[in-house]
Amino acid sequence: MNQASLYQHANQVQRHDAKLILDEFASTLQWRSDGEDALLDVGSGSGNVLMDFVRPLLPIRGQLVGTDISSQMVGYASKHYQGEERTRFQVLDIGCERLPEELSGRFDHVTSFYCLHWVQNLKGALANIYNLLKPEGGDVLLAFLASNPVYEVYKILKTNEKWSSYMQDVEQFISPLHHSSEPGEEFSQLLADVGFIQHNVEIRNEVFVYEGVRTVKDNVKAICPFLERMPADLHEEFLDDFIDVVISMNLQQGERNEEQKFLSPYKLVVAYARKTPEFVNNIFLEPTHQDLVKGIK
Ligand SMILES: C[S@@+](CC[C@H](N)C(=O)[O-])C[C@H]1O[C@@H](n2cnc3c(N)ncnc32)[C@H](O)[C@@H]1O
């Protein structure tokens, strides 16, 4: 997904979910007593979820690093938020073999919203997330798709000879938990395998309602990895076929006009994990997070 500006304007679902989850976990995250928290976000995209919902939670002296595999996304976010203090964006593939030296073991918190379903080597990504945390401890808040009807739409479109040549590697773009019968258990096991001592994983069944064909098409344009492989003059035809498949799956309500609604029932993994219990025990003795955010010590 390389269309930062499109994404910035078509990520209502992601914004909605991230805001709810951050409101819920703001006081669970283990903020430092000195207000010098360092937080890294994985897959920040155009940066607006990070800056609108995560940044306000950080204490005034906190450091924020937004990362993304896409240099285009990182370029867009760096430019858009260049005036922000103690904030930078850099390229990072969370599935990489070896973390860059300057990031390894440097963070108190790692967050990630709507990214990990893109990473097929989920265990490798979680091991990297664990190693981004400081050796003495830290915590992580992760939310990503276990399943979504869009994956079934992709699989059906791949069988259409018009689109199959652009979609040969469709499985690479399907959440590694999409076919799992127990995604929560599977993800909990991965967290334990890479070393997280305490973790809580929930699978949330959600439904998002898209108002009108244009809204669905704009969202698909912002996230569909196959569009950028095909000539621009085929995009509208692909999007029309996408809508036809959605309708054949009975995910629409109403007639085919601007009033039509589209339902997207999806499963979201929401996970919170801590690296060490000692870290937690120390923090329980410290001032509250709200005091730190306001700069009161
Ligand atoms: C749907 S966007 C989410 C952006 C933002 N977190 C939000 O909630 O709006 C997913 C982002 O994950 C990035 N991404 C995909 N694979 C990645 C990887 N292996 N490492 C880091 N980022 C990745 C994509 O480039 C994209 O910007």
Overall description:
By secondary structure, the protein is α/β, with parallel strands linked by helices. The chain has one domain (4-148, 175-208, 265-293): Rossmann fold, CATH 3.40.50. Helices cover 36% and strands 20% of the residues. It has eleven helices and eight strands. The chain has helices at 4-9, 12-25, 48-54, 71-80, 122-132, 149-158, 183-194, 213-223, 235-248, 277-283, 289-293, and strands at 38-42, 63-68, 87-91, 109-113, 139-147, 198-211, 252-253, 261-274. Strands 1, 2, 3, 4, 5, 6, 7 and 8 form an eight-stranded mixed β-sheet that branches. Helix 5 packs across helix 7 (183-194), helix 6 packs across helix 9 (235-248) and helix 8 (213-223) crosses helix 9 (235-248). The longest helix is centred in the N-terminal third of the chain and has 14 residues, at 12-25. The chain is globular, with a radius of gyration of 20 Å. The N and C termini lie far apart (42 Å). The model is unreliable at 280-297 (pLDDT under 50). Residues 1, 11, 14, 18, 42-45, 49, 68-70, 73, 92-95, 113-115, 118-119, 223 line the site of S-adenosylmethionine.
Features:
alpha/beta, 11 helices, Rossmann fold, 8 strands, 36% helix, eight-stranded mixed β-sheet, 297 residues, binds S-adenosylmethionine
Report the radius of gyration as a whole number of Å: 20 Å
CATH class: Alpha Beta
**N to C succession of SSEs:** HHEHEHEEHEHHEHHEEHH
Bound small-molecule species: S-adenosylmethionine
CATH fold-level name: Rossmann fold
At the fourth level of CATH, the homologous superfamily is Vaccinia Virus protein VP39
**How confident overall, as mean pLDDT?**
90
Beta-strand percentage range? 15-25%
Low-confidence stretches: 280-297
Assign the structural class, choosing from mainly alpha, mainly beta, alpha/beta, alpha+beta, or little secondary structure.
alpha/beta
Largest sheet: 8 strands, mixed
- Helix fraction, binned, reads 25-40%
Shape: globular
Instruction: Give the second-level CATH assignment, the architecture.
Output: 3-Layer(aba) Sandwich
Total strands: the figure is 8
Number of domain modules = 1
- The number of distinct helices, counting runs of at least 4 residues, comes to 11
User: For the terminal residues, how far apart are their CA atoms?
Assistant: 42 Å
